[in-house]
Amino acid sequence: MKRFGFEHFGDPKAFTTINAPAPQPKAGQVQLEVLGFGLNPYDASLRRGEQTSRPLKFPIVPGSDVVGRVSAIGEGVSDYALGDVVINYRPIGGYSEFVTASTSKIIKKPTAISFMTAAALPLVGIAAFSILTQLDLYAHDSLVIIGAGGGIGSVLVQLAKAQGVHVVAIAGLAHHDQLKALGADVILDDVEAQALQSHHYPTVVNVRFNGATTPLAQRLVTSGGKLLTSAYVDVPDGDYQKLALTKLAPTDVALAALVSTARAWGLSMTVGESLPFTLAGVRRGHELLEAGNTGGKLVVMQPDAVLNAAHVDRNLL
What we know:
6-stranded parallel β-sheet; 7-stranded mixed β-sheet; alpha/beta; globular
């Protein structure tokens, strides 16, 4: 099988094709034929050699987000059958034609989630669910989301609305139509957000990359309120409760919540570009990650003929 990884740190051209035997599932695992995988900023950081706290041996094959078809089943697995299409969140290794995964790290893909959304969803979806569970919100509570147009932010909007939360979404103008379709109650750009009443909102989440607009978040949160920042940045102390996305929710719990929301309400993500399942596609995806402003999540997908065959094999409600 083919994998896309690198033998040394560097720019996107560091990626190469690695030929390796297909991994075989152990007890409690399945083998997946990968139909598509998502590209994340973390993958680019890993390629640049910035993740020194997590030393890995070369060759390194990134990839946390996978949609795949069950192609072999390990001992003791009874909940999945050959041909099932599943969503998989994994620590690494998704840029491959085949992977193995524990059953606690996969869930069957419903028809309410497209193949591209399934490839884009796992990391940002689990992060959004983890944020929402920290906030302990109820129906009719208010939530301000700064960076609502991004991957985590847009999923957080959908999960919050499914719980009946009043969502104030702050994002660039390019995302406003999308946020309206997702059900956000109030949609503002950064300039308009400056006119919001200071210290008025009990729960404010900042999911902007690198914690940008932290001063705005500080100004909006009420005394005694909650301010959660997803980026690893130092947020100044204040008369509010500082929260951070320091730990993700259990994968099986988070994936189940995402699929449940998709079935009941729908769940979508903006895909900036779908790239071919080739070395050139991976390199191009990482060039786009380096350039920024991708317009949505980047995914690498198998050809339509492969996806259509998988869709016919398993069509789950």
